[in-house]
Write a structure and sequence with these properties.
The protein is an alpha/beta fold. The chain contains nine helices and seven strands. A hairpin with a 2-residue loop joins strand 3 and strand 4. The N terminus is likely disordered.
Length: 239
Amino acid sequence: MKNMLGWTTDEKRQLVIELDEIIRDRRFQVRNRTDAQTVKAYASAMQAGSEFPPVTLAEIDGRLFLIDGFHRFDAATLIGRQGIEAVVVPMTEREALKASAVANLTHGLRLTKTEKMNAFKQFIKGGGHLKGRGKLKSYREITSELHGIGTHGTIRNWMMKHFPRIARQMGDDKPGNRRADVPEMNPEGERAKAIRDALGEARTLLDLVSDPEEVYLIREMVEALMMEVSQKETQQPDF
């Protein structure tokens, strides 16, 4: 296989890999689909000379599977590139499932609720709920490693629905049981986090916008949002 000859199994390398050597496997993608507008924006930026982080590939039994960078891969394909910069890491299939589950939780487009659940399922299938000597992590630890994609209660409910055997091992024998490390839901905190995530995503995409008219429209929206935030800050809480 191109670029793979002579590698030892414990190496991690960054180099240019030919696109036709990379396998896109649905098992390692939490998103339901890539976003066409984002792919086009990335493609335009690539043509303009913008640099992007390398994609991440899992080498499983001598084959290269894409586990992070699907939008970048599609953008490179769209503009006819033959290769793409990639970090290649030898992994088992299970390790690749876990790695792909967390790949998009801290960057890229915000995940939908379904995609977050997909990430959770891949994480568990990849053994993300286990720690040394066959011990189980707590819901608090799992939620932390999944970068807060849901509350502890949400993670627990997903576990009971999709992995009932593991849930029973964690002490959830009945739907009404509640572990001590699962706090009550905080809807307002969830909404605030969603806003922060959206703003972080907007800041990332802003680097890809250069049209002055589009930038002006974005500024108007940001200024209107800032006025609403200022009004919120001056409101007195009800007690």
